[in-house]
Amino acid sequence: MYKGYFQRGGQRHFWFRGRAELVDILCVEFLSQTKASKILDIGAGEGDLAIVLAQYGTVTALDVSKEALSKMPSCAQVTPTIGNAVDLPFLHHTFDTVCLFDVLEHITDDMRAIQEARRVLKPGGLLLITVPLHSWLFSAHDRANGHKRRYSTNGIRALLRDFTPLRLGYWNCTLLPIIACVRIIRRNVPPRFDDDELPEWLNKLFWKIIHRENQWIERLLHLPWGLTLFGIFQKPTK
Asked: Distance (Å, rounded) from C-alpha 238 to C-alpha 231?
C-alpha cells in the first residue's frame, strides 16, 4: 500500500485512512492484474485516493474544484483534470476502470452520473463505488458535507441495473450503533461535522476497529451491516 498517504497530517483521521486501505484492498482483488489500465477517479478532490489508485495504472483525477486539484500531491501516474461527473470531457470507451468514491451522494442527478461513467467505460470495464447508507441516518453531518441523500443496497442495485455486480459489501460495521446515536441526536441541528473535534486516543481506537474490518473484507468475509456500501460492477461486453 502507498504508505505516504498515512503520513500526511490532515489525513490521519481514522475514516480517511480506513477508506484508503479499503480501496487498496479492492484494487488488489480486481485491478492488480491490469497494471497498464486507464483509471478515472471522479470527484478526486485533493487526490488522496488517486495516489492509491496510481499503483494500478494511469489515473485521471477529475474534480469540479480547481482549488482542490491544486493541492494534489505530484505523481507521474496521476493527471489532475477539471470536469463534472454529469458531463465528462472524455470520448466513449476511454477507461478500463471508473471510480466514484463517496461522490454520488453529492450529485443531484446521480443517474446521469452513472450513465456518463458507463459511457466512458470500455466494454467489460469496472466501476468501483462507495456510498453512505441508510436514509434514516441523514443528519447535520450529511448537510455539512453537501449530501443530497443516503442510499440503500436495493437503491444502488436499481441505479446500477445496467451493470453486473461482482462484489457488494458493507463497511464501517462495528461503529454503526455509536455513530447512529450521534446522527439521530443531531438530526435537526444546524449543519456540522460529527468528528471535527475527535480526541487523538479515540481516533486511534476507531482506526484499529476499521483496520480489523478491512482485514475481514480482505479475507472475503461479508460484514452484516455498515454505514457505507462498497461495490464493484462490470459493464457488459456487448
From this structure: 21
